[in-house]
Amino acid sequence: MTEYAPGAMSSATQRVYLHIGLPKTGTTSLQELLWHNQGTLTADGVSFPGHDLGAHHRAVADVHPGRYGSWKEKRTPGSWDWLVEQARAFDGATLISSELLAPASPEEAERVVSSLSFAEVHIVCTVRDLARQIPSVWQENVKTRQSTSYPDLLAALRSAELDHTARLFWDYQDLPRVLRTWGAGIPADRVHVVTVPPRGGRPDVLWERFAGLLGLDPAKYETDIPHYGNFSLGYPETEFLRRINASLPDRFPWLQYARRVKDDFAAHTLSARSGRGSIPLPKQDQDWVHDTAERHIAEVRGAGYDVVGDLEDLRPVAPRGDEPASADELTPTEAEIGEIAMESVTDLLRHPAGSRRMMKRKPPQPAKALRLRQFVMRMSDQYPQVMAARRTYWRVRAKLGR
Fold first, then answer.
1. pTM of the entire predicted model
2. Which of 195, 213, 313, 324 has the fewest CB atoms within 10 Å, i.e. the most exposed one?
3. How far apart (Å, rounded) are the C-alpha atoms in residues 94 and 85?
4. pLDDT tens column, 265-297
5. Among candidates 398, 55, 10, 46, which has minimal Cα distance to 210?
């Protein structure tokens, strides 16, 4: 297990930590915390580059356009190269974090790692037990416009044959495959598996493990911050959103969906409903999920990767006994769906689209020094001369520090 070592990042050796996911393992919360503490990280010798929270995701969409072609923001083209340039210019450690990296093919992963050949590359993978992952991933998939039902997802995962639904899930969640893909050609002790603690523990444990891996003192960083990217829905609300997804035309663009449906309607109207609870794993799926988790644990242990935390965290907890026999038993009635629809329409009439998103989910404004730093970073994205000046500044500061 990696422990916090004061001064671990004082070496002039350039390192790049690629945090590749897995999705739904605290990645968004970590990214928001890192962004909030960006200035402190830099002062401690760890760069978290980019001038907004979406910078790393756009960079991955840029380097993997075949996989994320619907991400058509104007700032996407060329964003991976500039992220690499910022890492190259920084004399210290750089952290790149995006769960969109998880499903990469061996060729895609090799291309990313090769672009960082100037540095010592470390792979960081946050992981959580599969019994919690499956329902959480289903809900997140629905929030990102997929329309596969929970019973259909579970049936696909139980099947011995991989269909499109199962393949899409395992592309992101097959832990041994993801680690083999990204760890190819990298020493096992530079492939770090950070486990998410079981439900009910202290909220900062994951951050403490993640910070310790980077050689940082976790207590030095502000963790009591608002989280803008995470919200949860109950099963009926998720099923209602899934039906909306199935009704939307294909020509409805992703960025419009993300803004109007996910970040506004789902995040406020649906998440505000009472009675939400975690989505259970049905009894008929518990045995195969437990067996799969045991296989993942054995493969991680056998590969000799650096485990930050405890592999026991990946073993599903004993079922409570009140889980439904199958996912079909969770399906809301048409009357329940109609009630959600009526309440949602009433709420939307009371609150015009976008009004609460702008009012309640506006990110905090950075301090003056951070705003200036972000301005310089934007200029370096556009002008090579500014990037060259930043390189000179960092090199001089590093020499003075030694």
1. 0.84
2. 324
3. 11
4. 999 999 988 666 789 999 999 999 999 999 999
5. 46
